[in-house]
Design a protein that fits this description.
The protein is built from 16 helices and six strands. By secondary structure, it is of the alpha/beta class. It has one domain: Rossmann fold. It has a four-stranded parallel sheet with strand order 4-3-5-6, with helices on both faces. Strands 1-2 form a two-stranded antiparallel sheet. Helix 3 runs antiparallel to helix 12. Its main location: cytoplasm.
Amino acid sequence: MQPHISSERQSKAMARLDVTETFHRISFPGHLHTQESLSYATGFQFQDSDTLIVTYPKSGTTWMQEALTLVFNKGDSTLAHSMPNWARAPWLEQYYCPEVLRASRGPRIITTHLPYHLLAPALQGSKAKVIYVARNPKDVAVSYYHFHKMANFLPEPGSFKEFLSKFLSGTVHYGSWFDHVKGWTSQARNKLNFFYITYEEMWQDLRGSLERLSTFLQCPLVVEELNSVQQHCTFSAMKENSMVNYTLIPEEIMDHTKGQFMRKGKIGDWRNTFMEEQNRNFDEVFKAEMQDSQLRFVWESPEKLDSEARTVTQNPALHGA
């Protein structure tokens, strides 16, 4: 059952659909974020038994929330089909989080889109497990653009060209993708109980990714349990599950006539949106921003890379060169 959120707080949130909160020079949708809730997040008292999912928006957050729910429940999908994902793994920086956590039982799964520098003080000295999910920023940009078109609590995105320009400059809500990834992967991974995985790894080898995840979580699964986890957190299964596909959200908040929250779930779909000039410009910005990063990004399947060998030499930045 979903933890109770007071009707008064819900009404206030509805009244803030057009509000933008600015916190440490980063914009957040005021519908779900307040100065109070953002300050609560940065001063949060983590427990050693907590598991924190960290993502930039549209990078596989829902997927990881579902995976953790199923792993911790040994493949039993009862909770995954009876409680919304935001009640199972609330966003730390959103206004309803304290009420949800007060009602929670057992080890807590918490979600955040906050950059590392805002949570570093709260996590210092903590043994909480941190899972960071990264995704090809080109696919992130396309997915985020479509989400803006249906989410009434986000600004109108304008044309994709206009939105992409804001994305590359880091002036979209939640800030810069580049700063987010670099902050968490270059600093947090050496200081925290840290697990890094990409959306693409999960897409290419879901079973192997789940095995790695269960090992990190110290939650071993027998074959039947792993089979069940894998079955229930495929894209097709999640798309049909109202507890994760956001169809429970009222039309006033998320206009489902303008798109689906679970849209495609593919990798490399950015090619259907990017113009050639936009792709070149993106590659230049990526190379400049990520030149000091030690991460090796492999955004495509091995078969795709083999068939596009020439693209690798022309576009080394997105292939980890």
